[in-house]
Amino acid sequence: MEELKTTVEIPDTGQLQSIYSMQFDALQDWLKEQGEPTFRATQIFEWLYQKRVTEFEQMSNLSKDLRGKLSKSFVLTTLKIVTRQVSSDGTVKFLFELHDGYSIETVVMRHDYGNSVCVTTQVGCRLGCTFCASTLGGLKRNLEAGEIVAQVLESQRAMDEVQERVSSVVVMGIGEPFDNYEELVPFLKTVNHDKGLNIGARHITVSTSGVVPKIYKFADEKMQINFAISLHAPTTEIRSKLMPVNRAWPLPKLMESIRYYIEKTGRRVTFEYGLFGGVNDQEEHAEQLADLIKDLKCHVNLIPVNYVLERDYVRTPRDQIFAFEEVLKNRNINVTIRREQGHDIDAACGQLRAKERKEETR
Ligand code: SAH
Description:
By secondary structure, this protein is α/β, with parallel strands linked by helices. Helices cover 35% and strands 20% of the residues. It has twelve helices and 14 strands. The strands form three sheets. The protein has a ten-stranded mixed sheet, sandwiched between helices. Strand 9 (166-171), helix 5 (181-192) and strand 10 (204-208) form a beta-alpha-beta unit. The longest helix is centred in the middle third of the chain and has 16 residues, at 145-160. It is globular, with a radius of gyration of 21 Å. S-adenosyl-L-homocysteine binds at residues 129, 131-132, 172, 176, 207-209, 230, 272, 274, 303, 305-306, 308, 349.
């Protein structure tokens, strides 16, 4: 797990940088270098994020010369839709193909309070959580910020068809966002920027499995973004069995970083706690969990385990889920049980890509 401290390079495929990877300020700087006025950045952002064009040529209020410069310097990343499944509850699941042939998935969930998009940050994952489908083939590569932005744009295009807006973003798809931190941050900034997708920070959630050094860094960014930690265990022994990342950064170190985050940002964190039958789902575990987090500004989201073909975890019976919840409630811990969506379309955690990957030749 030591090697996690190094970054994974995005292999150079001769591909130009995605225009969607450019933050507003960086675009202004680039324009200055080209001898262009900086207000062009506003115009370009409008074309990209409000009008959502697919060619630089369509940016009709820019000079032909500037359009030419843009297309020589950047690509307008497009994600090829391989499949688009719609569940009976309205959940839309995309399998996209990237320019180098890898596939990723993105899910749009329809709620009564709005539509949320769950984005992927890496092709695969190297964290090796023992219950997760996303990690089965290891990590292929990091996504570029623009490839993450493009997932939200493509989801918005789907919502355009029903005259609705993507109102929130959750970074809970395939991959470990904090293992691709350098691309994650520009993505978050563009999604949040008022001239970008303009999604409020409080409507954006990032989830990590516990890459501790990046939790400190994230706290220092002071973005008002919702933060979730995949805790899944009340003791370091159990956590190590479920999540190898716990061997690199054991539970006490993780909790220290979370305390720092809460202190620094003043924000409440969410602990995701997957219930894995017989492993971490007994009432004694709920008591241990309560002891661990009792004085923290937090919320617990209990997740009934999703069955993954290659993994042999079993679901916790309903009554036991409620008993677990009850223990936490009695200890005055904020707790909810995750509602499941898209059951009929493999919408959970890398399952669609896992099927596709079997046919991948690379
Ligand atoms: N790597 C990040 C982002 C993924 S979020 C993280 O670990 O937080 C996806 C959430 O679904 C995580 O909490 C993950 O632990 C959980 N998950 C993965 N596989 C699951 C499964 N089979 N059943 C229930 N939850 C699962």
